[in-house]
Amino acid sequence: MDSEHHDNWADLRPFFSGFVNPHQPENVAQRSLPGPSTILPGSGSALPVYRLSSFGPPTSSRRTGPDSTFLVSTAFPPGSATSRHLPDLVLMSSDSVFFHVHRSVLQAASETAFLISYHTLPLPSDRNSEPMITVQDSSTILNIVLHVIYVRSLANNQIPIKKFVTPSDPLGSFILAFAPLYPLQVYALAAQYDIHDLAVAMSPHLLSANLASVTDELADQMGPRYLKSLFLLHFERVEALKRLLMPPPHPHQPTPTCSSADQSKVARAWTLATAYLIWDSKVDLSTATIKSVIGPIERQIQCLTCRDTLKNRMDALVVQWTNVKRTI
Q1: Residue with more model confidence, 57 or 173
Q2: Do the beta carbons of residue 230 and residue 211 sit within 8 Å?
Q3: Residue 184 pLDDT greater than 50, yes or no
Q4: Which of 40-49, 57-66, 207-216, 277-286 tops mean pLDDT?
Q5: How do residues 56-81 score in pLDDT, each as one tens digit?
C-alpha cells in the first residue's frame, strides 16, 4: 500500500489515546487458558491479562526458565480461536504485554499496520517460533486497535459482529464513549449490526437527541425496528410525564383558616406550573427542573397542611419520574 495508508494508521494513535486511561484497570476476565497460568489483576496493565509461567515469548532473546513469567492478553492468547488458523505473530506492547495475532488479519486491514513489513518476517515453523514485533503503543491502545481490526475482519467474512461486541468488552466500551456526543450516530451503528445490548446501553443518551435531526441516511441505517424503538422511547416518556403531572395535590378537609376556595388556589397554581412543564415536554426533563418550577408554589401557601401535601406530591412526582424507563 502507499504512504497514505501509513499516515492514516499513524493518525489513529492520538485518536485512541484520547479515549483510554492506561492507569484505570478493568475487570480481569476469567477464561480457559493454555498451560500453567495465574490470573494477574495487579499486573499494572490496563486490560485483562494473565501470567503465563514456563512459556517464553516465541522469539525472545532472553533466556527462559521455570521462573520466567510473561503478561499475555486474554483476548489474544496463544492458540486463539478467533480465526481458522493459529496465531502466527506476537505483538509486544510498550508495557510488555503479549498479543498473539494472525498476520493475515492484520495484513488485510493494512499493509503497514504497526509499521510491520510482513514480507520480511520469518515463517513460523511451530508455536514456539512465532516472530515477535515490539509496538510503541500501550497494551490499552493496542487492545482496542486489535479489536477494531478483528471485528472488521468478521464483518468482511459475514460473521455476525454482535457476537463479539458487547458493552463490557474493550471495543464496545470504546464505542459507548462516543454516545454522549453522537447519540444518534452510535445508536445507528449498533442498530446496523443488530447489537441490541449496545443499543440498550447507550439509549439513555438518546433522551437528549432531537428526533427532527434523524436524516434519511440514519433512518435507513437504523432500520424499522430500531427506528420504531427510538420514537417509542421519546413518545412513551412524554406520555408518562403528562400522566404523572396531571393530578394536583389531594385536598384536605376544610378548616377555619383554609377553606375549599383557598385549596382550589393551590390546585390552580399546580395546574399552571405543570402546564409549563407539559408544554415544554422534554423527555430528558431533570428532577431539578421539576423542583424549580413547582417548588416556589410552597412559599405562597399559608396553610401548613397544604404545604405538606404539596411537598409530598412533588416528592412522589420526582420518584415516579425517576422510575420511568430510560432505555429502549
Answers
A1: 173
A2: yes
A3: yes
A4: 207-216
A5: 333 333 334 445 567 888 878 887 65
Instruction: Give the integer Cα–Cα distance in Å for 53 and 178.
Output: 38
**Cell numbers of 12, please?**
489513529
Residues in contact with 293: Cβ distance below 8 Å, sequence separation at least 6, in sequence order? 273, 276, 277
C-alpha cell at 81: 480461536
**Radius of gyration over every alpha carbon of the chain, rounded to an integer in angstroms:** 29
Gap between the Cα atoms of 69 and 67, Å rounded: 6
Q: First vs last Cα of the chain: how many Å apart? A: 43
**Cell digits of residue 202:** 447507550
Backbone angles phi and psi of 33, in degrees to 5: -120, 145
Helix, strand, coil percentages (3-state) for the chain, rounded to 5, are 50, 10, 40
27 CB-contact burial (10 Å; exposed 0-12 / middle 13-18 / buried 19+):
exposed
- Long-range contact pairs involving 189-192 (C-beta distance under 8 Å, separation at least 24): 189/221, 190/226, 191/221, 191/222, 191/223, 191/225, 191/226, 191/227, 192/221, 192/222, 192/223
Among the ranges given (83-92, 98-107, 235-244), the one the predictor scored with the smallest mean pLDDT: 83-92
pLDDT attached to residue 60: 34
d(CA 237, CA 285): 10
Q: 141 and 36 in contact (C-beta within 8 Å)?
A: no
CA distances from 31 to 63, 71, 76, 77, 172 (A): 28, 15, 12, 10, 19
- Arithmetic mean of pLDDT, 151-159: 67
Q: Which residue type is seen at 197? A: D
Distance from C-alpha of 308 to C-alpha of 302, rounded to nearest angstrom: 11
Q: What is the CA angle 36-41-43, rounded to 5?
A: 85
Q: Is 90 helix (H, G, I), strand (E, B) or coil?
A: strand
pTM for this model (two decimals): 0.62
Tell me the C-alpha to C-alpha distance, in Å, between residue 303 and each of 70, 163, 248, 273: 73, 61, 16, 19
What is each CA distance from 33 to 47, 88, 193, in whole angstroms?
16, 18, 30
What would the pLDDT profile of 305-318 be if each residue is shown by its tens digit?
999 999 999 999 99
